[in-house]
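Input (structure):
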């Protein structure tokens, strides 16, 4: 908002760290300063370098509309339900909730990045266009094809279970891919790799995913694509 200089913030934080006499760890101050002097300014640079074209980038050609539960939280997916409800109630969500829950779900489903951008910009109190757009369209949705990030931030349910307590008690089983109770994140993750192979298979940071995919039985790969199509067709009822 240009009310504070980044340098002013960094210097104040370092002074507070120095005066804390060890109460604030070097890891804490380093992480904070790195976000302000590093990532924040990187986002600002990307925005001013690549706009206005940046706002039109859609690397995967995603066109699906945002499901209704991004506005009412009415879904059986526990992680999405809680992340959305918290966002609606508090105009805030943790980085992992934004990137690996709502953002992850959106990119796996092929949600139109215009709709994802509009949601993040409208929901969060800290969302200004110059910082929200590179983080959402770039880092979260990889719609810029790699200007901001070196890989799409996608995962199956295993990562969500590791980073949260959402999977406990969820209608869906984070260990299963198929069936009514199989977690949508699992099938959608593998289907995302399958349908975007020509765009992503040469990316060294996600090579492991394709190596694992190539080891799957042909019948299992077919089951994934069939189940993913069912999930996406019934996306409003998840």
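Output (sequence):
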């Amino acid at each position: 908002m240009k009310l504070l200089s980044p340098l002013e913030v960094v210097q104040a934080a370092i002074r507070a760290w120095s005066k804390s006499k060890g109460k604030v760890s070097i890891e804490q101050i380093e992480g904070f300063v790195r976000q302000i002097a590093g990532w924040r300014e990187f986002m600002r640079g990307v925005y001013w370098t690549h706009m206005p074209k940046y706002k039109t980038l859609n690397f995967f050609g995603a066109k699906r509309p945002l499901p209704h539960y991004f506005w009412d939280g009415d879904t059986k997916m526990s992680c999405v339900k809680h992340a959305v409800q918290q966002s609606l109630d508090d105009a805030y969500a943790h980085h992992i909730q934004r990137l690996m829950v709502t953002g992850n779900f959106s990119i796996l489903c092929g949600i139109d990045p215009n709709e994802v951008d509009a949601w993040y910009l409208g929901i969060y109190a800290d969302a200004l266009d110059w910082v929200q757009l590179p983080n959402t369209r770039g880092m979260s949705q990889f719609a810029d094809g790699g200007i901001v990030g070196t890989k799409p931030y996608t995962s199956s349910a295993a990562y969500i279970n590791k980073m949260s307590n959402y999977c406990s008690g969820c209608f869906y089983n984070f260990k299963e891919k198929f069936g009514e109770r199989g977690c949508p994140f699992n099938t959608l993750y593998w289907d995302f790799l399958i349908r975007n192979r020509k765009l992503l298979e040469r990316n060294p940071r996600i090579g492991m995913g394709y190596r694992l995919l190539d080891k799957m039985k042909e019948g299992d790969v077919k089951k994934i694509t069939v189940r993913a199509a069912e999930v996406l067709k019934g996306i409003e009822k998840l």
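Notes: The mean pLDDT is 94. Residues 157 and 174 are 5 Å apart (CA to CA).
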